[in-house]
Structures are given as C-alpha cells and as structure tokens.
Inverse folding.
C-alpha cells in the first residue's frame, strides 16, 4: 500500500484545493442567497438578464470564463485594478484567483438549489408573519431562511464540490503554479502530462472521489436532520 | 374601536364596491363564496392593495388611495386568523404563539401568554410542532398567536371552514369568549348562517361584491330570508294566512289560505288576522302520492309550474297550490327519481313554518 502515500507536493495540492473551495463557497453564499431570493420572489426589470448572467458559467466553455476573468480581474483589468488599489487584493496567479474562479463556476449550481427551496416556501407563511408585526427582513431571517435551509445546505455542498473540481477556468485565469494555484485537478492534469505520473494521478483521483463522496453523505445527513426538526417532536 | 371601510376593486370581471362601518364587537362579513369577503379582509389586513378607497380606524388611516397612504401589514397591528391556520412549521407551538409579541411596545401588550393559553386550552401542546396538531388544535393555536400579538383588531377568515362539526363545536365557545372577554374588535368572515347567528354582534351581508344588508345582527338575521341570493340555502316562499281559530283539542292555531288548512304552533292571533309567513325552500318535501302515516300536518296538493336549477346538485321546484305559490328545494337526483315535470300533480309536505314579524 506504499503507493498510496502522498508526496509533500501532493499534500499541498489537496490542502490548497480544500482551502480554495472553502473560501469560494463561504464568500459566494450570501450573494447566492440574495440572488436566489431576488429571482424567486421579486419581479424587477432585468430579471431575465440577471438569470442569464448567473447561469452563463454553466453553459460557456470554462476556458472562456477563465479568459474573461483574466481580462476583468487581471492586474491590468478594470476590476483587478479596483480590488488591488481599494482592498489590496490581487487575484491573478494567486490562490485568491483560484477561489474566485471556483466561486464563479459554482455559483449557478448554488443559486439554482437555493432558489428552488425558497420557491418551495409558502409565501402565505411570510404573509402571516407580516400580520404579526414582523418586518420583511425579520420574516426572511426567521421564516424564509430556516424553511429553505435544506436547499441552502444542498446548494452549499454542491458548490463546494464543484469548486473542488474546477479546472478549465482556474488554469486559464491563474495558471498551474505548485503551492500557489495548483489545485487537485491541476495536479492530476500535470501528472498525466509526464511519463510515470500514473500512480500519482491515481492517488489524487482517489482523494477527489473520497472528498466528493463525503460531501454528498454530509449533505444527506444534514438535510435529513433538518427535515426531522421540521416535523418535530 | 371603530373601523371604517370604503373600497372599490376590480379583479378580472369581478368588481368589488363596498362600504361599511364596524363599531366594535364581532362584525360578521357574511355571504356566499365569491361574494368578495376574503378580498375585503385581505385589504383591511394590508395583504392586498385596493384600486381605490379608504380604510381607517379611530386614530389611524390604514389605506387612503386619495392621499397615497398605504400602511404595510407589519405596521397595522391587525391580527389575522387564516382559514388554513398558517402556523410556522419549523417552530414549536410556544414559539408560534410568542412570534408577534416582541414587536409590540411593553405598554401596549394586553395579550397575556398564559391567559390566552388558558382561554384556548392549548397548554398541553406548547412543545409540539404544528405537524403534530389536529385541525382544531391548529386553529386554536392560530387564534392564540394572533391574540398574543396584542392586535388592535382581529380578522378571522372562515376559521372553522376546514373543520368538521365536532371541531367547530370545540372552537366556537373560544371565539365567543374572545369576543366577550378580550374586548378586541373582530371582523369575522363566514358563509355559515349558524356561525354568524351565534357569534355576530353586527352583520354585513355581501353579495357579488356589494353590501346587500348591514346592521345589528338581530335585525339583519330577521331579514335574511328576503335575501335569497346572499343567503344561498335560505330562499323560500312568503304567504299570507288568515287566522281561523285555536284548536282546543290539539292546542294548535289553525290558519287558512287558498292551498288549504295550516296547523301552526299556538298563537295569540284573533279571527280575521292576516299573518305573513315564510317557508324555506329546504323545509318542503315533495311526494307524488298523497302521503300517509307521516308526522307532518301541513300537506298541500298542487301542481309543478316550474323547475329552476340552483347550485350544482339542487333544483328549485315552483308549485301552484290552488293559487298559493310555494317553492321547494330538492336534489336533482330526487327530481329524476320522481320524474318531475311541469304540470305534474304533487303533494307538498311543509316541515316548518316561520311566522314573520311584521
């Protein structure tokens, strides 16, 4: 079983992947909930456009998304310059860029799951909370959000798994720098490009499968716990 | 507290145009389905914006389309008990009950938690989730939840409609106590004469988007028979009878009309008195043969002069009994079984007669 032993570089790639995906998910979650709520409950001009924009990364070739990110968030891109001067945040060829690419690519899946669960919350319950004196923001926090929780959990875990697996946009936007932007998929890709890299690729592949499976199991357990709480003792 | 409502609103081809005033107590909005009752309470509660109109209480304007005033529901302090309870499924009964209390300033809280729990008899349910409550329990919790939020007015939209008779009987006393003890005005939507007669202090009768009668419950109820359209099942026939004599043997009053001799409960009428009566269409049975061996005393021979559809399953049968017009309500199934047709000779069995106060 010695071949299962990960080299330090491989460990770095695994750790970096988890780190990058966690940040990608945590940061996009509030935006995901906001956009999902807007799409589920509000009608406003440009709603179809917003919906299309959110789903675009799902349909575009990932390389195209990565290239657009490079143009916008590169050091000389307009958004890239903005973030660097205002927040001191650099994306290009850094792990932050990998997180951004992962977040953008995972966003449609996250929004979709959350939107469906918000649409499933009966607006009549929100109305009832309003007649009891609750401000719409309070209604959202105490009624809509808890009732949509199973979908929010599912969306979050789906987004995490998607960010873990993100390859095309990431490698185009931030390249494949070991220890900096070389995530699990990039590392697997590198192994397949060199002679004798087969066992390394297999090791990392098993890790990827294990992470994906535990994410699915975790989401299943959480969702079941939430729905049990709903039916309640 | 009083409530003034004047509204115009159009939904598709349904036009609502109503105005009424409620001075407190329990005001029943009464009428058949589709008469606009729920729309009216939704506008009072702020869930629907009227096209035009004004709703105000003593001290506040809730809506005035003239000045562009619209108070959102959460600022109205109007409790709403929905037909379908609408309890929050993820919260316990206790959490449901106290949900609205935090939004009310301390000084204005009158809806005491333990008082409401006692009044509604829901103390043993506090730790349960709504999914584990019966329909009647849910509705009681919904009433408690509205009450504990200390509203200035409570709206109840057919709160008993989804319940069977046993559950209704379980909740009616609570609503009566609420009306009498909580001293909060209630606007109560219903299409049931029984509920309205039992609960209402004032009645507003709605018919196809308009107010067809309004006033103190006693007055409006007495006139309900005159409003067959609004009252639905309550249509019937009006006749005038001549008092003949008090029958010493049976103790009954005997009256005469072209149809024949009427046996009615003892009365203080005198010979020569002309007495208006009302016979509900649903209080007349029809027979194709002269009935024998039945308890009803008032049986009249007549002829079918008209068949009119009423609701989905019923027919109104117009009878000519030697010049008196009687209308009976029977099911279409019965009509088919008796093979009823215009011109047929039948016997009308009158179960109950109401004497009208003139």
């Amino acid at each position: 079983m010695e071949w299962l032993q990960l080299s330090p570089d491989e460990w770095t790639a695994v750790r970096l992947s988890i780190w990058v995906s966690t940040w990608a998910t945590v940061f996009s979650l509030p935006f995901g909930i906001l956009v999902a709520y807007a799409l589920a409950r509000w009608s406003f001009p440009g709603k179809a456009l917003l919906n299309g924009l959110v789903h675009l990364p799902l349909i575009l070739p990932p390389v195209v998304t990565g290239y657009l990110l490079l143009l916008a968030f590169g050091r000389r891109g307009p958004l890239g310059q903005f973030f660097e001067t205002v927040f001191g945040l650099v994306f290009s060829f850094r792990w932050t860029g990998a997180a951004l690419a992962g977040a953008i690519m995972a966003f449609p899946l996250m929004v979709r799951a959350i939107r469906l669960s918000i649409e499933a919350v009966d607006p009549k319950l929100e109305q009832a909370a309003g007649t009891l004196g609750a401000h719409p923001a309070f209604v959202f926090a105490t009624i809509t959000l808890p009732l949509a929780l199973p979908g929010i959990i599912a969306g979050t875990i789906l987004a995490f798994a998607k960010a873990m697996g993100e390859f095309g946009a990431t490698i185009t936007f931030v390249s494949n720098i070991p220890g900096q932007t070389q995530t699990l998929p990039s590392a697997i890709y590198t192994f397949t490009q060199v002679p004798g890299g087969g066992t390394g690729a297999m090791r990392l592949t098993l890790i990827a499968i294990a992470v994906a499976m535990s994410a699915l199991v975790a989401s299943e357990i959480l969702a079941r716990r939430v729905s049990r709480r709903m039916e309640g003792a | 507290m009083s409530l003034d409502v004047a509204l115009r609103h159009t939904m598709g081809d349904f036009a609502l145009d109503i105005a009424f005033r409620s001075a407190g107590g329990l005001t029943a909005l009464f009428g058949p389905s589709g008469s606009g009752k729920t729309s009216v309470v939704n506008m009072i509660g702020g869930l629907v914006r009227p096209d035009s109109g004004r709703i105000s209480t003593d001290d506040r304007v809730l809506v005035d389309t003239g000045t562009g005033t619209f108070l959102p529901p959460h600022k109205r302090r109007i409790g709403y008990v929905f037909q379908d309870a609408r309890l929050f499924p993820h919260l316990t009964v206790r959490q449901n009950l106290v949900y609205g209390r935090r939004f009310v300033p301390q000084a204005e809280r009158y809806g005491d938690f333990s008082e409401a729990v006692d009044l509604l008899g829901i103390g043993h349910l506090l730790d349960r989730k709504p999914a584990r409550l019966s329909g009647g329990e849910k509705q009681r919790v919904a009433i408690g939840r509205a009450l504990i939020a200390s509203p200035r007015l409570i709206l109840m939209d057919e709160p008993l409609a989804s319940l069977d008779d046993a559950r209704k009987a379980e909740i009616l006393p609570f609503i009566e106590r609420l009306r009498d003890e909580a001293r909060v005005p209630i606007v109560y939507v219903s299409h049931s004469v029984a509920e309205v007669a039992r609960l209402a202090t004032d009645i507003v009768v709605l018919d196809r988007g308009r107010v067809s009668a309004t006033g103190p419950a006693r007055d409006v109820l007495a006139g309900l028979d005159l409003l067959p359209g609004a009252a639905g099942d309550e249509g019937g026939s009006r006749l005038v009878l001549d008092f003949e004599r008090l029958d010493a043997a049976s103790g009954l009053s005997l009256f005469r009309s072209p149809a024949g001799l009427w046996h009615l409960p003892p009365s203080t009428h005198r010979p020569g008195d002309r007495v208006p009566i009302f016979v509900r269409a649903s209080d007349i049975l029809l027979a194709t043969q002269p009935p024998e061996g039945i308890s009803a005393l008032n049986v009249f021979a007549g002829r079918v002069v008209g068949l009119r559809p009423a609701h989905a399953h019923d027919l109104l049968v117009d009878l000519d009994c030697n010049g008196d017009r009687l209308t009976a309500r029977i099911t279409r199934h019965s009509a088919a079984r008796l093979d009823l047709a215009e011109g047929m000779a039948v016997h009308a069995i009158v179960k109950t007669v109401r004497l009208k106060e003139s």
Chain B has a mean pLDDT of 85.
